[in-house]
Write a structure and sequence with these properties.
There is one protein chain. The protein is of the alpha+beta class and about 600 residues long. The chain has 3 domains: about 170 residues, no CATH class; about 190 residues, DNA methylase specificity domains (Adenine-n6-DNA-methyltransferase TaqI, Chain A, domain 2); about 200 residues, Adenine-n6-DNA-methyltransferase TaqI, Chain A, domain 2 (Alpha-Beta Complex). It is about 40% helix and about 10% strand. The chain contains 18 helices and 19 strands. It has a 4-stranded antiparallel beta sheet with strand order 2-9-6-7. It has a 4-stranded mixed beta sheet with strand order 4-3-8-5. The longest helix is centred in the last third of the chain and has 45 residues. The radius of gyration is 34 Å and the shape is elongated. The two termini are about 20 Å apart.
């Protein structure tokens, strides 16, 4: 445990740190590594003799059915070494499994459905009040101080278990998806049994033994009743329960502290990004950026905060705040004049279909002021649709799967845009069908955009793209790179299009769809000079690399912490040394 003592603060930064700490506490408790042993304690062997005598008495009185004797547990079967004074037994030897209650039909009792049993440690079990005659048949019985275990997936794997208490008139019934243990004498502490049922080894081994169909798997009664159980002296059970309760309360404090700290970091990150986005001039922007850079170790311990930084970088890019402007750059207005002349030439040649004129951009439409040299434009000004695509515009083919073959010309699907990966997919069409659908061909540098459901994801076709067509869930556009670089459009589209209210114009209710070229044409966006587009792309690549490095570092740290926790758990399980007292008080 020296590693836990030495790196306690670091380990607790891991996302699952408190969960893993709880598991170490529970497993150490049932292995005799939780508290020191006391030679004065009455050993568990004496406790077993008391239980045996009590069971024989109850059998003679007719209150308990005789049990078939079980074979002794051999040395080879024992999972690990126990401290002196402990004994390996089976749970059924210590009490009654799945007992029944007997009460007057008009007695008011507690009813507990599965939803009222928590997977949290020592959570209070709530109940509903019912007449006993309504619940005595067809439900699981229990009474105060019984220990219940959820046996069905995923409740079992999640650790749903409880000590029943405060039941109306001391009895209750509930979900049939429970195993129940009732101690035969008071020297068997229900809370210790409860700790055992929550221990990770019991749950992991039980998960392997579950039977039934998927979604309906259950832990067999034999595993619950006959699994090897580590029994400490009664006095030590009390000390273990006290220690575990104290450490679990510490874990609760740690979780609260972490939640408060994480929320503070989120708030601070949001405030820093807000100031960054609203910096009125380059000098203030640089000051705010340096402030964020200085807080990296504090702000970016969660991937979610890094993702917010990524979004801010993209927004800054399209606001003209990410790189300085250069007065020598040819302004965007000159570029617009060039593209207008080029379009007019192609329309005259018949290689481009005429466009429907759109209204000029009013001052009210412009979301924010742009730097000198930039211009607000509509997407129609910078994209082209092929003349032979008049029928469906830029949208893909509605080809049916009946035409698909094992090899030939590829059919590009929505996932190629969503994941920006043209190597995915395995649908093909014949050369004959491809020739019929050539207006849907994807060429190098074509941009394909997801236009149904997951709207707005896009990808640029590489130079080495496999010949093929797009399906109906996609649309394609072609940019004139003399005015708008493809790489800048990859930044612009998610940063601006996806954050404006243009989605409100899309058709569909639960699922949005781009169904009209006009929807695309009227999209407003900020256009920088071509040279500045290049600088923006380079800067975004640099900063995104930094963000990706942060996320990779967090993943590596999480993996390292998980490895360290496993090492700590293993070393603790191999040692008879009790858990260190440092765990009794939370770190500052």
């Amino acid at each position: 445990m020296s590693l836990l003592l030495h790196r306690f603060d670091l380990l607790l930064e891991a996302p699952n740190a408190v969960k893993q700490l709880r598991e170490i506490i529970l497993q150490s408790a049932v292995m005799g590594r939780s508290v020191p042993q006391d030679p004065a304690d009455e050993p568990a062997s004496v406790l077993l003799e008391k239980i045996k005598a009590e069971k024989e008495k109850l059998v003679k009185e007719g209150k308990l059915k005789p049990e078939n004797p079980l074979p002794p547990i051999s040395e080879e079967e024992k999972p690990y070494a126990l401290p002196i004074g402990w004994e390996w037994v089976r749970l059924r030897e210590l009490g009654i499994i799945n007992p029944r209650n007997y009460a007057n039909d008009e007695t008011i009792a507690s009813f507990v459905p599965m939803a009222l049993i928590s997977d949290k440690y020592e959570a209070v079990v709530k109940s509903e009040l019912r007449l006993w005659k309504e619940i005595k048949n067809g439900f699981t019985h229990f009474k105060d101080n019984d220990v219940c275990l959820a046996k069905i997936t995923p409740c079992f794997e999640n650790g749903k278990s409880a000590i029943m208490s405060n039941l109306k008139n001391g009895i209750g019934a509930g979900t049939t998806e429970l195993h129940v243990f009732r101690p035969i004498i008071s020297d068997i502490k229900s809370k210790y049994i409860y700790i055992y049922l929550k221990s990770p080894k019991f749950i992991s081994e039980g998960t392997k033994k579950m039977t039934g169909s998927a979604g309906q798997k259950r832990v067999p009664k034999d595993y619950f009743a006959n699994n090897y159980f580590p029994l400490p002296p009664s006095a030590e059970q009390v000390r273990i329960v006290e220690k575990v309760d104290r450490l679990m309360a510490l874990c609760d404090q740690l979780e609260t502290q972490r939640a408060e700290r994480d929320q503070s970091r989120v708030s601070l990150n949001n405030a820093c990004i807000h100031r960054l986005l609203n910096s009125p001039e380059p000098r203030e922007f640089q000051e705010n950026w340096q402030r964020i850079a200085g807080l990296f170790p504090i702000l970016y311990t969660k991937p979610g905060n890094v993702e917010k930084l990524k979004q801010a970088i993209l927004q800054l890019a399209v606001m003209g705040k990410l790189v300085p402007q250069d007065q020598a750059d040819e302004p965007a207005s000159v570029l617009l004049g060039k593209i207008k002349a080029e379009k007019e030439r192609r329309i005259a040649e018949g290689t481009l279909k005429p466009e429907t004129p759109l209204p000029p951009i009013s001052e009210e439409e412009k979301p924010y002021p742009l730097p000198i040299g930039w211009e607000w434009v509509r997407l129609q000004h910078v994209i082209s649709f092929e003349k032979n695509a008049i029928k469906r515009g830029p949208f893909g083919s509605s080809i049916k799967k009946a035409f698909f073959v094992s090899h030939g010309y590829k059919v590009y699907e929505q996932k190629h845009a969503i994941y920006n990966d043209f190597s995915l997919g395995h649908y093909y069409i014949t050369e004959e069908k491809y020739n019929e659908l050539k207006q849907f061909t994807v060429k190098p540098k074509d941009i394909i955009i997801s236009c149904s459901g997951t709207v707005g994801k896009l990808a640029i076709a590489p130079e080495s793209i496999e010949p093929g067509i797009i399906n109906q869930a996609l649309l394609k556009i072609c940019l004139n790179e003399t005015i708008l670089r493809n790489e800048f459009f990859l930044i612009l589209f998610p940063a601006f299009f996806m954050t404006t209210d243009v989605l409100n114009d899309l058709k569909g209710t639960a699922q949005k769809n781009i169904t009209s070229v006009n929807t695309l044409n009227k999209i407003l966006f900020p256009l920088p000079p071509l040279s500045e587009q290049v600088r923006i792309v380079e800067k975004v690549d640099e900063l995104m690399g930094l963000c990706d490095g942060l996320i990779e570092g967090l993943a590596e740290a999480e993996t390292l912490c998980d490895t360290l926790f496993r090492s700590i758990a293993f070393s603790q399980n191999q040692s008879l040394t009790p858990l260190p007292e440092i765990l009794d008080s939370p770190p500052a």
